[in-house]
Amino acid sequence: MPRETNPAVLVGLETHDDAGAFRLSENTAIVQTVDFFTPIVDDPYAYGQIAVANALSDIYAMGATPVTALNIVGFPSDRLPMAVLSRILLGGFQKAHEAEVVILGGHSVKDPELKYGMAVTGMASPGEIITNAGAQEGDLLVLTKPLGTGILTTALKNGKLPDEWLEPATRTMAELNRTASRLMKRHQAHACTDVTGYGLLGHAYEMASGSGVTLRIDHRKLPVLPGVWEMIERKQLTGGARDNERYVQSHLKMAETVGKPWRELLYDPQTSGGLLIALPPEKVAHFLADFEQETGRKLEPIGEVLPPQEKALEII
């Protein structure tokens, strides 16, 4: 697409950021995104919650506050009862209500494949918008949700995922990134992106490229959902992981000590994943302490930001 030249565009397509930002006035900008996808869990209500949490995540990743949303629906009304759609929309409504987001309406089409999501508008001060292009040398990297949702939901589709591993995966995908967003602003994050379809390495590469730095990630520090290693062993792998591998492989230096299961996880496409945040080193301990106090989950830095090296990403 041609590049937008309107001076009110604060964030456009150039850095592959999570959302777009447009200045309305000296003190006010709107941040906009749209996201929808086919079901990844069987329960319609949970699917609605996950789809909305995922759509809102783009707004949170930029440090903005989501305000309004519009539903987007593709529904096979000749194959599924309308009660299914009702449950999806209820799940979405209640997740939006949790986020204090008002659903103003939406649009639906008859579609042979079920799809649901939202277009979301958020608000921010123009000077406080956080992009994926601001990481600075010396920053430490934090990831706020565990990895592995692509592998686990693939296993679910194949009828291979035990219920004991479905529940934590569903819970983490439905969790809002609101707390992490608020805390990263409090502790002056330099850059952020949410980890979704391009996997951890795809989104990390976009941050490194946009910021003109190298990200070094220690794979041993990454949080992982229960059941992931067992599902990798049973070959419950996604086709999207291979696409993500092709996307980043020429920009990546991977240590030989990183085993094949870890490589699968690093490329695994996520749904409604966590925020990957670049924080000043002196702020990290305070961010982690506040995050644990508010969520009950303990995190640790997963890597650091280096001056530009031969490759944009280094995995050790």
Describe the structure.
The chain has 316 residues and is α+β, with helices and mostly antiparallel strands. The chain folds into 2 domains: 9-128, 60s Ribosomal Protein L30, Chain: A, CATH 3.30.1330.10; 140-315, Alpha-Beta Complex (Phosphoribosyl-aminoimidazole Synthetase, Chain A, domain 2), CATH 3.90.650. 37% of the residues lie in helices and 23% in strands. A hairpin with an 8-residue loop joins β1 (9-11) and β2 (20-23). α5 (178-186) runs antiparallel to α10 and α8 (239-248) crosses α9. The chain is globular and about 55 Å long. The two termini are 37 Å apart. The relative contact order is 0.17.
Can you tag this structure with a few keywords?
13 strands, seven-stranded mixed β-sheet, six-stranded mixed β-sheet, 316 residues, single chain, Phosphoribosyl-aminoimidazole Synthetase, Chain A, domain 2, 10 helices, alpha+beta, 60s Ribosomal Protein L30, Chain: A
Characterize this entry briefly:
It contains ten helices and 13 strands. The chain is α+β, with helices and mostly antiparallel strands. The longest helix is centred in the first third of the chain and has 18 residues.
What are the SSEs and their pairings?
Layout: E1 9-11, E2 20-23, E3 29-37, H1 44-61, E4 65-75, H2 82-98, E5 102-110, E6 115-124, E7 140-143, H3 149-157, H4 163-174, H5 178-186, E8 191-194, H6 199-211, E9 214-217, H7 228-233, H8 239-248, E10 252-254, H9 260-267, E11 275-279, H10 281-295, E12 303-306, E13 313-315
Parallel strand pairs: 4-5, 9-13, 10-13
Antiparallel strand pairs: 1-2, 2-3, 3-6, 4-6, 7-11, 7-12, 8-11, 9-12
Helix pairs in contact: 1-2, 3-4, 5-10, 6-8, 8-9
